């Protein structure tokens, strides 16, 4: 298992992007990404280019599509059968996401709080999703400078409110990369903890399904928790009991973006206990609320979130990193 830097939301000339699939792959490599998902609007014709030019031999590409409808956008990853998106409307979205699952795919909510018409046609999420558990993941970050954008703060709030209801969506970052963005601006990356699988799409689906994901604009982040002598990381489960969370920030990747980076913990919030760890750049917060514990670290670097169920043990649900 290893953490891999991914961009999970891209467009090419097969829809409204600026680059060919090959061009996008080359750009991804030059930016230090290790994997991308191809998610063109309402078409998977880019996958033919991918296969014909054998591009995925040298660079892992996840097979996907972005359903682009009048009521919001849905990222579909790794569906083994074509699921017709043309008749999706607000009231049948639950059935449509079930069809994606039946076809072996995962479905995620893209940029839920993006401005809608006339700024961005149909980008705002207006589906009447009755069972949010049918969504596998949600973009809590979208676009460049994602940590500063109001729509993303709303998405984080939505994600957190779902966690509070025991609905565990995996939080991801989607640059919605069209190939003409300013690469000097910090952008988010989703790290997925991948199992050694031959098929990268299956490996990515496995990570997304099991919450082995975090987002960052720069440094790598590790979140671990220990309880009753058992340790686990992002996506893992712990037994009940006093739990210690540790968040560490690493520095192997994309150093050029955060050269002057340093951890500056934010002020403590009411009801939160903050403890500086013995190791520099290691700290933890422990919060108790109702029937779960959460841990969250904030800084010029990182924060993570975990949840504890009184009855079912703890699951870590993902974390994210801010770069203020
Ligand atoms: Zn979109
Ligand atoms: Zn898009």
Structure description:
The structure is a single chain. The chain has five helices and 18 strands. It folds into two domains: about 1-215, Metal-dependent hydrolases (TIM Barrel, Alpha-Beta Barrel), CATH 3.20.20.140; about 220-320, no CATH class. Residues about 260-324 have low confidence and may be disordered. It is of the alpha+beta class. It binds zinc ion (2 copies). One zinc ion binds near residues 110 and 111. One zinc ion binds next to strand 3.
Please give a quick description of this structure.
With 324 residues, this protein is α+β, with helices and mostly antiparallel strands.
Provide key terms for this protein.
disordered C terminus, TIM Barrel, alpha+beta, six-stranded antiparallel β-sheet, binds zinc ion, twelve-stranded mixed β-sheet, 32% strand, single chain, 324 residues, 2 domains, 5 helices
Topology:
Elements lengths: L1 E6 L13 H10 L4 E4 L7 H7 L8 E9 L2 E6 L15 H10 L3 E4 L27 E6 L7 H15 L5 E5 L14 E6 L5 H10 L3 E4 L3 E8 L2 E4 L3 E2 L4 E8 L21 E5 L5 E8 L2 E3 L8 E7 L3 E8 L4
Parallel strand pairs: 1-2, 2-3, 5-6, 6-7, 9-18
Antiparallel strand pairs: 1-8, 3-4, 4-5, 8-9, 10-11, 10-13, 12-18, 13-15, 14-15, 15-16, 17-18
One zinc ion binds next to strand 3.
Beta percentage is 25-35%
Structural class: alpha+beta
Question: CATH homologous superfamily name of the largest domain?
Answer: Metal-dependent hydrolases
- Give Rg in angstroms: 19 Å
pLDDT average, as an integer? 78
- Low-pLDDT residue spans: 259-324
Please indicate the count of domains: 2
Distance N to C terminus:
30 Å
Query: Residue share in helices?
Result: 10-25%
How many DSSP-defined strands? Answer: 18
**CATH class term of the largest domain:** Alpha Beta
Report the CATH topology name of the largest domain.
TIM Barrel
Shape: globular
Number of helices: 5
Architecture of the largest domain in CATH?
Alpha-Beta Barrel
């Amino acid at each position: 298992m290893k953490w891999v830097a991914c961009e999970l939301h891209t467009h090419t000339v097969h829809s409204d992007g600026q680059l060919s699939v090959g061009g996008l792959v080359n750009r991804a490599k030059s930016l230090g990404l290790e994997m991308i998902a191809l998610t063109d609007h309402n078409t998977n014709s880019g996958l033919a280019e991918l296969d014909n030019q054998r591009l995925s031999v040298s660079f892992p590409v996840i097979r996907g599509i972005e359903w682009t409808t009048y009521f919001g956008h849905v990222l579909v990853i790794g569906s083994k059968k074509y699921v017709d998106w043309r008749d999706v409307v607000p009231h049948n979205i639950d059935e449509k996401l079930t069809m994606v699952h039946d076809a072996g795919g995962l479905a995620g909510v893209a940029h839920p709080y993006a401005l809608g018409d006339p700024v961005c046609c149909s980008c705002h999420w207006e589906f009447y999703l009755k069972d949010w558990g049918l969504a596998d993941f949600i973009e809590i970050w979208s676009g460049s400078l994602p940590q500063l954008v109001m729509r993303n703060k709303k998405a984080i709030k939505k994600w957190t409110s779902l966690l509070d209801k025991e609905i565990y969506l995996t939080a991801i970052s989607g640059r919605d990369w069209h190939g003409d963005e300013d690469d000097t601006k910090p952008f988010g990356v989703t790290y997925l903890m991948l199992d050694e699988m031959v098929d990268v799409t299956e490996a990515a689906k496995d990570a997304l399904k099991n919450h082995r994901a975090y987002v960052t604009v720069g440094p790598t982040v590790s979140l671990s928790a220990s309880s009753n002598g058992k340790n686990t990381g992002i996506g893992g489960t712990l037994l009940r009991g006093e739990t210690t969370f540790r968040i560490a920030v690493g520095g192997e990747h994309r150093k050029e973006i955060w050269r002057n980076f340093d951890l500056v913990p934010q002020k403590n919030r009411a009801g939160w206990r903050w403890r500086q760890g013995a190791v520099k750049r290691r700290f933890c917060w422990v919060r108790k609320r109702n029937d779960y514990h959460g841990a969250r670290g904030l800084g010029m670097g990182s924060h993570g979130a975990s949840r504890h169920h009184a009855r079912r043990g703890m699951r870590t649900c993902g974390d994210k990193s801010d770069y203020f």
